[in-house]
Specification:
Elements: H1 3-18, H2 29-36, H3 40-52, E1 56-59, E2 63-66, H4 80-85, H5 93-98, E3 107-108, H6 121-131, H7 147-157, E4 166-169, H8 171-183, E5 189-194, H9 198-206, E6 210-217, E7 220-221, H10 223-233, E8 237-240, H11 254-266, E9 270-274, E10 298-303, E11 315-318, H12 321-335, H13 340-350, H14 354-377, E12 384-385, E13 394-398, H15 405-414, E14 417-418, E15 420-421, E16 434-438, H16 444-459
Parallel strand pairs: 3-14, 5-6, 5-8, 8-9, 9-10
Antiparallel strand pairs: 1-2, 4-11, 6-7, 10-11, 12-13, 13-16, 15-16
GO molecular function, one term: pyridoxal phosphate binding
Family: In the C-terminal section; belongs to the class-I pyridoxal-phosphate-dependent aminotransferase family.
Organism: Deinococcus cellulosilyticus (strain DSM 18568 / NBRC 106333 / KACC 11606 / 5516J-15)
């Protein structure tokens, strides 16, 4: 049964409860099934939700009853908190809205995660079953992470990276939080590509660090502007996504890779390399990580959430010297250690024959869906891909002249399709009107339907 049907049953039951006395028995599950023409699973979901809200109580062998007044006491108002905390914009608001549930009936083309059909769920379940046999998986784990998993990430990074340089963390967002807490102080400037990942901007602003935009194009950050920004800002950290940048999809060109590393050395600065889509290049040969060419100036991070599944919150940070020590200390402060169960499951999956098979199938599917998106977009004049994506799950689309991103995003939602307003990815004023649209988070037919709805929005634009 759909979510809207479940909501309808819940609302009807709440109205019924309001008209009953405390302790009064509710109809049986069978009676409710007949009343609402619903399955026992749906009815039990509704009753469980009501029990969690404190509106009903279930007595084994007796039935379900209206909760007494004490059990269903109204929540006290929290308006006093606004006075105590003060009124201010929180830097995580955009990220929270981005992660919010999609309204019923809307097509979700905003997600940065794989379509559930493409996630490595079966292989991960096999790995979890295998490691659950170990009595140690529920116990303590080394604060740096288990040695074998650190060695795997080090080997993947290449160059002179060793297991001792690797810190296991709880996913990419946690990694960014740890890195910026370790490398920066409040009030300092950090250089970022413009546009850039909104989650990184949220962390910087939460830490009271100032993100300074550096212009980029389809070949990544522009080195001349990067050097000028280092000169003028006094920044000692540059945050970048050299492969399939979020949201633009740009990959740093070979010449610019060399120049960016040279500039970091010249200004004795750190490059924070966010390799969030490692393993998801589906066309062409991906360039190696920057850290493989300069492990002294590059602080590298990657996560498994994009390539495996959203709840596989396991990632790695690679650094050397004092930066490595500070990142380790901050990681311990933030969360002590990452679940040993997740680490062991990740290691089992990554070293199993299922992993390369999963990636091969994933590459084929993502390329197929990318091609569908490009084909459908050819029928929408003015909605132009910024790049031809060669990896990842999304594309960056420029809107027709005169159409504002915020207005278009709201109109798209009214027409039943969710995309991300491009403005949130700019650390300062946007340099154009864009939206980010995912092609890898839904099945092919849903993707076509979503793009068709975007076309309808433009066709009806006044």
């Amino acid at each position: 049964m759909s979510k809207s049907s479940l909501d309808r049953i819940l609302n009807a039951l709440k109205d019924d409860i309001q008209n009953r006395q405390a302790g009064e028995k509710l109809p049986t599950v069978r009676d409710l099934m007949e009343q609402f023409q619903a399955s026992p699973i749906t009815i039990n979901k509704a009753l469980k939700a009501l029990a969690l809200e404190g509106k009903i109580v279930t007595k084994t062998g007796s039935g379900t009853f209206v909760a007494d007044p004490v059990q269903r006491r109204e929540t006290k108002p929290t308006a006093w908190q606004e006075i105590t905390l003060g009124s201010r914009y929180h830097p995580g608001d955009n990220l929270r809205e981005f992660m919010a549930n999609v309204p019923s009936g809307c097509i979700p083309l905003q997600s940065g995660y794989l379509d559930p059909e493409l996630q490595a769920v079966e292989a991960l379940q096999t790995s979890l079953k295998a490691v659950m046999r170990k009595p140690t998986v529920w116990g303590w784990a080394p604060t740096e992470g288990i040695e074998e998993l650190r060695a795997w990430f080090a080997h993947e990074a290449g160059g002179y990276v060793r297991a001792a340089d690797v810190q296991i963390v709880s996913g990419g967002q946690a990694a960014l939080s740890t890195i910026f807490s370790a490398l920066t102080e409040p009030g300092q400037n950090v250089l970022v590509e413009s546009p850039t990942y909104l989650g990184a901007l949220a962390i910087m602003r939460s830490n009271k660090v100032n993100p300074i935009p550096v212009p980029s194009d389809a070949q990544g950050v522009i080195p001349e502007f990067l050097e000028s920004a280092f000169q003028k800002s006094g920044a000692k950290v540059f945050y970048t996504q050299p492969r399939h940048a979020n949201p633009s999809g740009a990959t740093l060109s070979p010449y610019r890779r060399k120049r960016v590393l040279e500039i970091a050395e010249k200004y004795q600065a750190f490059i924070v390399e966010d390799d969030y889509l490692h393993g998801l290049t589906f066309e062409g040969t991906p360039p190696p990580p920057l850290v493989s060419e300069n492990e002294n100036h590059v602080v590298y991070l990657r996560s498994l959430t994009k390539s495996v599944a959203p709840s596989m919150r396991v990632g790695a940070v690679i650094a050397k010297g004092a930066a490595r020590a500070r990142i380790h200390s901050m990681s311990v402060v933030d969360g002590l250690f990452v679940s040993r169960l997740l680490q062991e499951a990740a290691l089992h999956l990554l070293t199993s024959p299922a992993w390369p098979k999963h990636l091969k199938k994933l590459h084929q599917e993502l390329k197929y869906r990318r091609n569908i998106a490009l084909q459908e977009l050819r029928h929408i004049p003015g909605l132009t891909p910024y790049t031809n994506p060669t990896g990842g799950v999304h594309m960056w689309l420029r809107l027709p002249e005169g159409i504002r991103a915020e207005e278009f995003t709201r109109a798209a939602e009214r027409n039943g399709v969710i995309v991300v307003c491009g403005n949130v990815y700019f650390p300062a004023e946007p340099n154009g009107d864009f939206i980010r649209m995912s092609f890898g988070s839904v099945d092919p037919q849903t993707l076509k339907d979503g793009i068709h709805r975007l076309r309808e929005v433009l066709e009806n634009w006044d």
